[in-house]
Structures are given as C-alpha cells and as structure tokens.
What we know:
The protein is of the alpha/beta class. Helix 9 links the parallel strand 5 and strand 6 (190-193). Residues 406-407, 409-413, 431-433, 436, 458-461, 486-489, 509, 513, 537, 539, 582, 584-585, 589-592 line the site of nicotinamide-adenine-dinucleotide.
Amino acid sequence: MNGKDTKSVPALADLIRISKSVGGKASFVQGGGGNTSVKTADGKHMYIKASGVPIKDIGERRGWRKLAVASVRAILDAPDLRKMAEAEREAEVVRRLQDSVADGAPGGARPSVESHLHALLDRCVVHLHPVAVGAYVCAKNGKAQLQKLFGDDDLPPVWVPYTRPGYMLGAKVARLVAAYAKRHGRIPGVLFLQNHGLLVTADTAPRVVREVSRVIGLCQSGLTQPRIRSVRRPNADAVAAAQTSIRRALWETTGRRLAVKHFIDRAIAGFMARPDARQLVSSAPLTPDELAYVGNSAMWLSASAATAVARKIEAQIRRGEWPSAAFLVEGLGLFAAGSDRTIPIVREVTTASLLIRGHAADVGGIRSLPKVERQFIMRWEGERYRRQVAVGSEGGELAGRIAVVTGAASGLGRSIAIGLGRAGASVALADVDREAAAETANMLREAAPGASSTVVVCDVTAERNVEAALRAIRRRWGGVDILVNAAGIAPAHSLVDLPLAEWRAALDVNLTGYFLMARAAARLMIEQGMGGSIINISSKSGLEASKSNTPYNATKAGELHMARGWALELGPHGIRVNSVAPGNVFEGSKIWNPGYIKMCAEKHGIKPDEVIPYYVNMTALKRRITGQDVADAVTFLCSDKARTITGQTIVPDSGQVMVR
Ligand SMILES: NC(=O)c1ccc[n+]([C@@H]2O[C@H](COP(=O)([O-])OP(=O)(O)OC[C@H]3O[C@@H](n4cnc5c(N)ncnc54)[C@H](O)[C@@H]3O)[C@@H](O)[C@H]2O)c1
Ligand SMILES: [Zn+2]
C-alpha cells in the first residue's frame, strides 16, 4: 500500500502483532468482518485495517490505511453533517473518511466504515463479530445476560443499543463514551454492539489481545455447544440434484448464473438436527453482515425441486428483500451460491448465524435486525459497496457460467480457457497433463485475477474418466454451461506410411473423445434445463483437406458433422452446438513441433524456418492467427450474442478457407 519502510513505525508494528494474534483464532473471527487499529504515540494518526482485507492478512506493506485522527473525529462533530439528509450524509461521510487518509497512497482500498468508532477509543482497538458475542448481542435478553456475566468486572462493559452503521453509530458511541467517562473517570474498555459485535480497547497491544481473549472466553462459558458426534455424508446424487435445482431457481428468478456448492460439517449438522431449526432460520437476518454477504437468512428447504425453490426466492423478491445465497436442505446440509471468492464468505457468515441463532434461542430468543434497519442497510451506500464486493462485481459476458475445456494444458485449449475466464466464466481445465494444466491455471490467475479455475485430470478417450470429470465439476460448482472440445492430436504421415495405431489414436482422441465429452455434458445440460453451449474445435483441415494428414482430415471433418447433428438433437433443449475451425496457430501448440514443421517443409519443398511465413502468406489478411483470436470466436459463440447461432462453423483463419 505504501512503499516506505514501515518497520520503524511502532504503531504499525503493534497493529500487525494484534491482527496476527486475534485474526488467527477461529473462534474470534468466525463470522467474518471486524477490524483493528492502533494510534501513533502522539495520538495524531491511526493505522486501521483497509476494507475488504481479512484481519490476519494485514502486513507491513498492505492491508491498512493511515488516517488523521482529528479529521476522523471532526466528521462526527461536523454540524453540517448532522443536518444533512441521511442518504446524502452517508455518501459524504465516505468521502470525508477518504479525505482523512494520510498515507500518501491516494485511491486504493477504502478505510473501514467503522473508522469513527476507532477514533473515539484508546490507543489499540479490536472490533470483531465473534459467534460467542453474537449469541448475546442478537438475543432478546442479551443485555441482562451480559451484565450478569461481567458482574465482577471493576468497570462495567457498555451496551450499545442497535444503531445504523456508519455516521449514526459513530455519533451514538461518542455520546455513550463521553457519558461513561464522566461517570467512571475513564473511557470504557469493552463495548457490546447490539445485532453487531464487540469492541475492545486498551493502551497496549498485549493488553488489548488479553482482554479480547477474556471477553470472548467469558461469553463462550455461558453457552452450550451443539451436541453432535459425527456428521453423516449425504447421498452424492441427492446433493448434486439439489445443487442443480438451486442453481436453476436462482437463474430463473434473478437471471444470474451462479456456482452452488454443498457443505456439511458439525456446526451445520448440529444446527439442522435441532427440532426448531426451521423456525430459527425463519427470523430475519441478525446483523448487517448477514444481510450484506448472504442477502437474507438461510432459506430452509424440505424438498429441493427447482420450482419450489424458485417460488420461495420469488416471494423474497416480492417482499422487497434480497434473495438468499444460502439454503439449508433437509437431510443434505448447506448450499451456498456465488463465486469461488464469495462462497466461502457465505458459508462462514451463515454458519456463524446458525450458531448464533441456536445459542440466542437458548438464552432467551433471537432478536433480528428490525425491518426498517434492514431496509436502511439495503439502501445505504456503504453497505451497497460491501455487498458489491461480496456478490462480486465479476462481470463479463460469460459471468457465472461454468465451462469445461479439454486440452486446456496447451496451445489452443489453453488460450480458450484463458479467454473464457477473462469473459467471467469459471473454467475446468481438463487434460491428461496435470502439471501443464496447473500452469494454465496460473496463467489464468494472472490474466484474470477474479476468475476461477480448477484442474481436472481426464483422458477424454476413457468413458469412466469423462464421467468422473463431469461429476467433479458438478460437485465443485453445481453444473456446467459450456463445453469446449479442444483436446486433439495430429499424427502426420503420408497415406502410404501411416501406421494403423496412429490412425486409431487420432480417431480415439479427436472423435471418440469429442463424443464422450459431449454426451456427458449434454446429459447434464438437459437435466439442468438452462440451455448451454457446446463448441467443437475442428480445423480448416476439416473443411479443406491438407496433404499427408489422413487421420486429421478425417477426424476434423467428422467433428464438424457431429456438431451439426448434435445441434439438431439438442436444439429443443436450448443447447447450441457450433464449431470453430481455426487456421494455423503456431503459438504454444505442441502439434506444431519441429517434426511436424519438417514434414510441412518437405510437403511444400521449403526450408523448416520458411514454413510459418509460407502459411501466413496464404491468408487473405496476411496475418498470423493467435490463440486469443480463436478464444474470441469461442467466447462469442458461447455468449448470448450468438443466441440464434447453432450448427454453424466459424473460421478464424485470416481468410484462407471460406465456408458457404
Ligand atoms: N494449432 C493449430 O494450428 C490448430 C489449428 C486448427 C485446429 N487446431 C485444433 O486445436 C486443438 C488443440 O491443438 P493444439 O495445437 O493446441 O495442440 P496441443 O498439442 O498444443 O494441445 C493439445 C492438448 O490436448 C491434450 N490431450 C491430448 N490427448 C488427450 C486426451 N486423450 N485426453 C485429454 N487431453 C488430451 C494434450 O495433453 C495437450 O495439452 C486440436 O483439436 C487441434 O486439432 C489446432
Ligand atoms: Zn462491525
């Protein structure tokens, strides 16, 4: 965040120490969120966690912002802000917070929207949303229970009644802290925020860490833990069917394709085993976090048929609520919808909410966020920003689509996989070569940091491998929307020298492989009922025979014709099937190995290093074709822009073979 040497800054060193310590303990940070800060010795500045960074990841160079304390406090004191309309004020507060940044790195991550709270307190501040604390702050008589629990403390903790996050909460805490100081001669060390979390403050790092530990430990001591010994793995087919139903229902009701993943663990199973579980999740979200990250309370489903799920989501939308991203299906467990980046957050926040609901019910009943407050948060700029981060601004014309690309470890398959990832798809990299496929995954991460990918080792000629690959993809993301068949081989021999085994190998990979993958993908796409797109990567040799290429000519033409037949069969299911027949792509291809190039040189009576210019010169555009050129054609065919195109062949070859 800031290039300067930061080792010499004691406040930052303390911030890192505190953050590593509290951020690394599961029971402290379970539920997500929270922030940490430390003020400089002169009290003029504070180092505070940046928005969107996990506490434990705060380091010397990233994860924090430095703010001018006086400037942050001035926001709460400003008379003009007090008079402003709420919506306008919250936007202004975000702007002024940004103006309080004093680390010489303009732009960048926002400082936390809870920065005001930190500015009001002692030198070191830890703010968390731990489950053990949530059990009280989200319970009807939580305040009284906490008073009992902390009755032996010299100075009592402060209870902060629910207040809108942002400016209003800052102003409320400022008043409470001032009143406390007047009464007790010092500012409070522990504050419980209703429907929110915990604030602990002290003058030194070891003291604040010790106090956080003590407070959470004491809260925990008053709770009974879920009584579940072992977790039964549910039937895999039932889980897969539920993933498909939920994915489809979300798509039908929101128009978005999302990944849907299944989870079952002790906390989830323990909650679901409660006789009152269904009723407990029927209460509205408990905290701003649950609302922002999960959209709503987890939806309880006794059956997971897509139409039933869709009806329930529709009802949420009709009531003006956000649709849930978490679903509890009886007998199966938790299903979380989103992307690879957001699903773990949905799982974590939901699991915390389930635990809190169970505990809160045991200590006197759940207290949800009131409706007006939920509505405020849904409108609030600061939360909209967080939700945008949560739901994912992952855009792109293939956003949320799940793709599998065969041959993704090299050449065109690799370029296509990267292209689809750039366009927003989650991409399964299917290949026999695990290491090279993992390299593609790295390249994809570089090219599109938000994209998700997974390596699936698979020999496309082996029926069982293919079935297992599709199952693995379904388990991971909940389905498949796009198949690109690109794993191919080109044994180059003249007819008279062609060994039978090489002929058979080409038929096996280029035809049988394409067939097996298409069959498995089409079966799943039909079951999903959400349409889909299948692309066969053929070749211009599939349209126009090339010399000394018998098996390649035959199989590449076969692929085109298979695609046409599949287009007819699968059309009624909304599944489009097209082919891409590229010209020569030399970049990164193993087909264009020195042996193959030598064979081409002989074929045309030229030297090997003349082969590439020779082929480029045969095109109308006199232009080399790159993997990206082919990836762009594939992306177009997979996108909704190609919604009426099926059974066709697109030829990215710089104008060499012209189809009609
Ligand atoms: N490079 C070109 O000039 C060109 C032109 C037109 C069409 N194509 C087509 O593009 C596709 C890819 O060609 P390339 O040049 O990138 O080839 P490549 O050899 O560089 O990559 C092919 C990939 O397929 C994988 N593979 C091979 N057999 C497999 C199997 N049984 N199961 C799973 N994976 C397997 C390989 O491990 C490799 O990673 C082929 O279908 C080819 O016909 C290539
Ligand atoms: Zn908070």
